[in-house]
Amino acid sequence: MPSFDPLRYAYPSRRNVVFARSGMVCTTSPIASQVGLDVLKRGGNAVDAALAVAVTLPLVEPTSNGLGSDCFALVWTGGRLYGLNGSGVAPRALSADTVRRAGYDAVPLEGWLPVMVPGAPAAWAELRRRFGTLPLAELMAPAIRYAREGHCIPVNVAKQWRKETARFSALAAREPEVFGPWMDYFTKDGRTYEAGDLFRCPDYAATLESLAETECESYYRGALMEKIVAFSRRTGGYLTERDFADYHPQWVEPICVDYRGYEVCEMPPNGHGITALMALNILKGLDLGGCREDVQTYHRTIEAVKLAFADAKAFVADPRYMRTKVSDMLSEQYAAARRRLITAQALWPEAGDPACGGTVYFCTADGQGNMVSFIQSNYTGSGSGVVVPGTAISLQDRGANFSLDPESDNYLEGGKRSYHTIIPGFLKKDGAPVGPFGVMGGFMQPQGHVQVVVNTVDFHMNPQECLDAPRFQWMGGRRIQLEREVPAHVARQLAAMGHEVEIVNSRLDMGRGQIIWRRPDGTLVGGTEPRADGTVSAW
Fold it and tell me: How many CB atoms within 10 Å of residue 104?
């Protein structure tokens, strides 16, 4: 065949919105989307499809999530919305003093210090128990087959894989006992995998088989847990048998705000979906005009996001430790007070006083009305770089979101959940479901949620157009990044208003989203992220 560069695309392409009646799966991976759709065709529901996707994505996109991930899910079924918090907790033996004694003034991103008890496997089992219809063995079978027979690495995953290989090569040279297993599993004798390469992982298949046989119990109270804890003890980690035995995911009530007649729903803290809701509460009192590519639209949206983020960073934590009420953070009075701070110039964001007033996202829907908004993450890329030999379990680095400030509600303590960046979203109208949506990407996530909602409600974009539209990302202070597709005159005007503007050419860091809306007649309408490798699989 002719030679070609799989990473070069000289001309822009456009995806169309997808329609379906019987089922839809939107993910960042064509393989995962097809796996989920196959489950729907075999009679599974949207939760079954979501679980099949969730166990496949760590294999086909290990640069974003793993078998040691956390996850959150919003499930619409039986006429109401449910939330499941599958975020992990810090080991009991870990403390802020432990981190300081190791020579750090913040929790690092690599090694054992940021590793928490993973929550995803327990959440998979809990979702299947409550809302699934098919056995885990059946839902995991496709991922097990791909792990043994192999799959071809897609383009954008290959780009991320290259970065992760460079990241952990140096660490493995210094600490081979800790980081060597990552290199063993995810490189070819130290060389990175490239787009189109075949990737096999038999240990991944064996781990899934253990999870299927035990309803994930082996991960927390069995053979897999013993392997994780033994490796932790051997290489300087902090995990114990009790940390795993005591872990359980939590069912929670979603939090929602009205935005111009639509109900936008997010997970409550410790997730930072409340950031998106606070920003939308501010924006709904402002006129964004009729043009999306207008400087005032960008400026006001950016300012609202900045103010909301300042509050979230100050107040969001494990809800058992939060001194600030969610109801106060989402009150109309507080939104009005924050809105008054927005002027014609870029502001420096500071937290107010509410008391006075590396991730994968996917969504599924079936023909019976069930819908799932699901997000799963190892946090920074493939996580901490700690992979348990014999299991292919790559452990997340969520502990890096803890604070070492004793005055912070998010202060690092054993057994505590950290501030969490992953957030699934859901939209309703007049009590009926519109559908699931989400944009992954660390601190980009609530910013992406706000932009998707504004695109949908204020500018009447279809799901694919919502995701195609150019994005901004607030980076801290007055610094913002704009995609190169943002009109040049808008960028110049924003700079004149005091924003410190950076134009970015790579779209990989601007989040990757998925959307499924349900029309009143039951027709499903889907869009998938053009910045990723994924697809909408529809039936």
Answer: 13
Which run of H or of E encompasses 522?
none
Q: Match 């699931």 to its residue by tokens.
A: 436
| pLDDT tens track, the chain, 539 positions | 565 566 666 656 678 889 999 999 999 999 999 999 999 999 999 999 999 999 999 999 999 999 999 999 999 999 999 999 999 999 999 999 999 999 999 999 999 999 999 999 999 999 999 999 999 999 999 999 999 999 999 998 999 999 999 999 999 999 999 999 999 999 998 999 999 999 999 999 999 999 999 999 999 999 999 999 999 999 999 999 999 999 999 999 999 999 999 999 999 999 989 999 999 999 999 988 778 899 999 999 999 999 998 999 889 999 999 999 999 999 999 999 999 999 999 988 876 656 544 688 999 999 999 999 999 999 988 999 999 999 999 999 999 999 999 999 999 999 999 999 889 999 999 999 999 999 987 788 999 999 999 999 999 888 898 898 899 999 988 999 999 889 999 999 999 999 999 998 766 678 889 999 999 999 999 999 888 888 899 98
Please give the structure tokens belonging to residue 99: 């981190």
**Separation between Cα atoms, residue 440 and residue 509, nearest integer Å:** 10
d(CA 81, CA 60): 29
Q: Give the residue among 353, 270, 280, 271 at the shortest CA–CA distance from 310.
A: 353
State which H helix or E strand residue 79 sits in: none
CA-CA distance, 464 to 405, in Å (whole number)? Answer: 42
Residue 353's contacts (CB-CB under 8 Å, 6 or more residues apart) are none
CA 88, CA 71: separation in Å to the nearest integer? 9
Tokens representing residue 97 in the block: 């003093």
Going 173 to 175 to 181 to 182, the CA torsion angle's sign is negative
Cα-Cα-Cα-Cα torsion 163, 168, 169, 174, nearest 10 degrees, comes to 150
Question: What burial class does residue 472 get, using C-beta atoms within 10 Å of its C-beta: 0-12 exposed, 13-18 middle, 19+ buried?
Answer: buried
- Angle, helices 223-235/202-214, rounded to nearest 10 degrees: 130
Q: What is the CA radius of gyration of the chain?
A: 22
Q: Is the pTM of this model over 0.90?
A: yes
**How far is it, in rounded angstroms, from Cα 503 to Cα 531?**
16
- Is there a contact between 380 and 358 (Cβ–Cβ < 8 Å)? yes
CA dihedral 114, 116, 120, 121 (to 10 degrees): 130
Could you count the other beta carbons within 10 Å of the beta carbon of residue 408? 17
Q: Which uninterrupted H or E stretch holds 374?
A: strand 371-377
Q: What is the largest CA-CA distance in the chain?
A: 68
Cβ distance 402 to 419 under 8 Å? Answer: yes
